[in-house]
Amino acid sequence: MDFFLTLFSKYKCLVYTAFGDEQYLQIAHKLSACGVPFRTRSHLDANRFLSDSAGVFPREDRIQYDIYVKKADEARAYQAIHKT
Asked: How many whole angstroms separate alpha carbon 73 and alpha carbon 76?
């Protein structure tokens, strides 16, 4: 299924990978504030899930968010993300 989503999506440029809700929300806010449309694909990291029982990783950092933009918006997205 991921293959077809990637193949037919207009959002193909991976501009950021966030770990955890807080980091994702910060980047999503920056992109939205600058008017850059984006799509997100989330993944549960099994290694982090297994390691969590030992207390190695905080619970909220289990999810990986990949943030994609259109090729035409790639430069604007990087500018928005790295703007202080």
From this structure: 5
Residue 43: the pLDDT is: 84
Report which residue type is found at 27: I
User: pLDDT digits over 33-71, tens only?
Assistant: 999 999 999 987 665 545 555 555 555 567 999 999 999
Angle at CA of residue 47, ends 65 and 69, nearest 5°: 15
Direct distance between the N- and C-terminal alpha carbons of the chain, in angstroms, rounded to an integer: 37
Number of domains, the chain: 1
What is the span of the domain harbouring residue 42? 2-82
8 Å CB contact between 17 and 27: no
- CA distances from residue 56 to 7, 11, 17, 60, 62 in whole angstroms, order as listed: 36, 34, 20, 12, 11
Q: 13-19 and 39-44 as β-strands: parallel, antiparallel, unpaired?
A: unpaired
